[in-house]
Amino acid sequence: MITKKAMLASAALLLLGGWSLAGAAGQSGTPIGEARPVDASPALPALDPTIRAKADALFADADDVGETRALLVLRDGDPVYERYGQGFDRNSKLISWSMAKSITVVLVGFLVADGQLSLDAPAPIAAWQRTGDPRGAITLRHLLHMASGLEHVETGDPVWKGDTVEMLFGGGAGDMAAFAEAKPAAAKPGEIFNYSSATSVILADILADTLTPSQNPEARRDAVRDFIQGRLVEPLGMTSLTPEFDAKGTMIGGSIMHATARDYAKFGEFLRNHGVTGGQRLLPETWMRFMLTPSEDDPGYGGHIWLNRRRPQGADVALWPDRGPNDLFACIGHQGQYIIVSPSQRVTIVRLGITKDDQFSALRRHLADLTAAL
């Protein structure tokens, strides 16, 4: 007999191994943009040997940093280094894990700019609006700063006891938003920082509800996909971007999007240019400032994005504040997925791969070395 614990343990191992959720719980795993053949790579400019050595080390030192599957470095928007691990190339779509959170915040920003959502109004979750429910005080700002106060365990010990695994692979998988939104208040909104993939699913649910009144899963998926197509994919040319959805048609906004390294780099460049692409402003400067302003409860975290600032004592290290520029920021995903943006250096770096927990210190050191060399 296969117990629920065994199923969750297997799912957790798949998660740790980089499994895709497509088809697991009714998700739609097709790219939003039109599939296009990718032209042959143009010859890259000559690169300083020191920089090349730092970049190559992310492949050569696999015992220390894990498997690097893609590494792409852009300066002023132009590629200066592009390399892939065995079995991968510029057409390979690779999983985002939590880098997806930063894509979700940009989508929310579009709706705030359109006047359809408000950053500091109560989050439009009907179940929280009953008289006396403390969750009624939760705002979008609280959700985006991971300070909602909702009870949540991101990573369990053992792993299958965590809320994230339960939501993605266990009893919450069929309706992830319902699972996340049913959690009780464990603290006042804005009182503590608690990193939560479930919070990003709540934001994705708000996104869908704002775009369509329909509760039909197909209608919800279509509304969100059309919105992403028109506001992000087409303007940025991110034609490989592939978000996934649960059986209720809610985008898994906290993780599990797929794209090529080049398309992740386009998103990084969009952020480096503060919401401007091709000379056209798509995202207000005020929203970019919100995203990149340290939250009250954790200076190393902004609006669903990591900042190169010191985190509170006892918090896990995210970037390298003692070495890198103060304006550096990053989208970071499980197993060592990074979109690193350094505006003062005019640089964007994408690293995708499989890194284990005990290798993260070395991976961060290698990425900091590369950033410093640029």
Written overview of the protein:
This protein is of the alpha+beta class and 374 residues long. The protein has helices spanning 4-16, 49-60, 62-65, 100-113, 140-144, 163-169, 176-181, 197-211, 217-236, 261-272, 285-291, 360-373, and strands at 67-75, 78-84, 94-95, 242-243, 257-259, 276-277, 280-281, 306-307, 329-333, 337-342, 347-354. The protein is globular. The termini are far apart. The relative contact order is 0.18.
Mean pLDDT: 90
Q: Write down how many β-strands occur, each being a DSSP E stretch of 2 or more residues.
A: 11
Helix/strand/pairing class, anyone?
alpha+beta
Q: Describe the sheet with the most strands.
A: 6 strands, antiparallel
The helix-strand sequence is: HHHEEEHHHHHHEEHEEHEEEEH
Give me a quick take on this structure.
This protein is an alpha+beta fold and 374 residues long. 34% of the residues lie in helices and 13% in strands. The model is unreliable at 1-14, 16-28 and 34-41 (pLDDT under 50).
